[in-house]
Amino acid sequence: MKVLVAGGSGFVGSRLVELLIARGHEVRIYDLVVKAQFADITVRGDVRELEPYAAAAAGYDAIINLAAVHRDDVQPVELYHTTNVDGARVTAEVAALDDIRRIVFTSSVAVYGLDKPPSRETDPTDPFNPYSVSKLAAEQAYRAWYDGAPGRVLQIVRPSVIFGENNRGNVYTLARQIRSGRFLTVGNGRNRKSMAYVGNVVEFLAEMLENGQGYRLLNYADKPDMSTNELVNTVKKALGRNPKLSIHLPLWLGMLGGHCFDLLAKLLRRELPISAIRVKKFAAETVVDTTALEATGFIRPFTIAEGLRRTIAAEFGS
After folding, report:
1. Is 131 a catalytic residue?
2. Which of 51, 68, 157, 242 is 20 to 30 Å from the Cα of 120, by its Cα?
3. Of 53, 60, 80, 131, which one is the catalytic site residue?
4. Model confidence pLDDT, tens digit, residues 100-109
5. Topology of 2-163+195-223+287-301 in CATH?
């Protein structure tokens, strides 16, 4: 299959492109960033610009759209809409112009909101920040494309927080803070977290590309879900730290500290590793139901504990 991966130079995209090539697909990347290892198969471009995007996709069988603005502190906030929503609408228009009938899109479990019961795909959505609002709107743009003509295939995946090697996201930040000895658990640590290891996510996206039919919307998370305490202890063991030495900070005090860091970040005009939204997300219960995913028969190559150990070994050494 000839596959265009929009955002293929990113963390998930790079792993997915490697996998798709290994599985025999002809792959082209469309991205603002050109990585040296993929320079020969990359077209530099913006998913918001129709003509160059359509030119890059001409003759291809499928588009996988991973391109997104997703950090918590993006400014101006309009970038969430222009990149995530307008990018989805342009992707759908490109597919229509080039007669591409297969799209795989990565949304987010953030569309369900925070501190919800384990969310199923049929549950109401409750986006809580500009990022989650934009992801839900992007889903709707793709659904309009799917409904626009018969024979189209749309596979939407809502992954939980993705971690893995070469990612400087939440798990890396957690491990770095634990390694430095400056880590405090905010809250009682019993809140559970649905997470996803990148090695499993890309395998599932490849399965959705190759075997998906019609319209499907599926959550993705690696099970079983860990509590924050279990996550912290697993990371500590991987780093060779004593899991019994843990300090818990009351949530109200953690949130106060987060707001102070927000104010300091504004004064300094730069990003800081701690913010109120990050504290809130860390202490929240974020669990998604994967019953529909399990029904597909997908077998994860790695356990979540294996993914954590591989990530920490790659970033910090064994």
Report:
1. yes
2. 68
3. 131
4. 999 999 999 9
5. Rossmann fold (3.40.50)
